[in-house]
Amino acid sequence: MKARIAVLGGDGIGPEVTAEAVRVLAAVAGRHGHEFEFVEALVGGAAIDASGSPLPPRTIDACRTSAAVLLGAVGGPQWSGPSARVRPEQGLLDLRRTLGLFANLRPVRTIPEMLDASPLKPEVIRGVDIMVVRELTGGIYFGRKSRTAYEAEDVCSYTAAEIERVTRVAGRLAMARRRRIVSVDKANVLETSRLWRSVVERVLAEEFPEVELEHMLVDAAAMHLIKRPTSFDVLLTENMFGDILTDEASMLAGSLGLLPSASLGESSVGLYEPIHGSAPDIAGRGIANPLGTILSAAMLLRYSLGLEAEARAVEDAVAAALASGVRTADIAQPGSIAVGSRAAGDAVLAAISAAK
């Protein structure tokens, strides 16, 4: 297979972690007879510095002409002051809108060798395997906004069509898993959540009758993610709730640095990124955890390129690297020696090479 992949390193640690993911993708291509072309472009704060825009036309063109987009992270204090006229995060939001990406997939799985990295008891998190499906282009992040010196407004709005299409994504995923969906909302307070609940019920009843549906208020979901995380299979929710709950769920795996994500639409072109931020406090030091980005590259192989065996090979290599004791600073035990980003990438590459 030949494929063009846009690589948007972004800001902070973004370029460091995407570099390791690109190395892994290149190794997979070489091992399995594929040809991947990597095209680098700017996004976020780096793009603002270079062009004044967080999403320049050249970056849009690179993404539109690629089979998939691999992104590191955006943002940083130098672009986020109260007087900032344009912010790095707007580039990411605009990119999602431009590519028509409305469903964000965030898998949360525990790895046996990493149980001690979580603040929760091993018996609580052992066997966790959750797929969070977050609606990505509606809700309060994209609603009308206004601010004066005395008041501010952020409007949360959803259409039935927006809820229908993300529910179908969740339904298809649930059919390939344990056929259970927990739909998270705040229907006791919000009208958008009442619409969400009714549309989810209708779509699943009509199109996925084999899937068991449970509604859960977001505050209860936040509690049960910690209390009984193994009870979740597919968790479907709106934009802001999904953003918050997946950061919470990262503690099940032990670190934000371990969790990947995929943003998908109707076409096969997707955007793949770790769920962590740009971590400007450690940028340039070579100590960031690249495993979430490498696992995002595995999702790229699966969902945009249709290379399931290659995706599993990357996931298995990450698991093997962790099983061998590789730990970056964010997941290292006190008193142990942490490896840097490059060494973590080397460990994954070695596991790929050693696999039969």
Number of strands: 12
Q: Structurally, how many domains make up the residues?
A: 2
The share of residues in extended strands comes to: 15-25%
Mean pLDDT: 94
Plain-language structure description:
With 356 residues, the protein is α/β, with parallel strands linked by helices. The protein folds into 2 domains: 1-102 and 262-356, 3-Layer(aba) Sandwich (Isopropylmalate Dehydrogenase); 119-253, Isopropylmalate Dehydrogenase. 42% of the residues lie in helices and 19% in strands. The chain has 12 helices and 12 strands. The strands form 2 sheets. Strands 2-1-3-12-11-4-5-10-8-9 form a 10-stranded mixed β-sheet, with helices on both faces. It has a two-stranded antiparallel sheet with strand order 6-7. The protein starts with a strand and ends with a helix. The model has no long low-confidence stretch (mean pLDDT 94).
Please describe the topology of this protein:
Layout: E1 2-10, H1 14-32, E2 35-40, H2 45-51, H3 57-64, E3 68-73, H4 88-99, E4 103-109, H5 122-125, E5 129-135, E6 145-147, E7 152-154, H6 160-175, E8 180-185, H7 191-207, E9 212-217, H8 218-227, E10 234-237, H9 239-253, E11 260-264, E12 271-274, H10 291-303, H11 308-323, H12 341-354
Parallel strand pairs: 1-2, 1-3, 3-12, 5-10, 8-9, 8-10
Antiparallel strand pairs: 4-5, 4-11, 6-7, 11-12
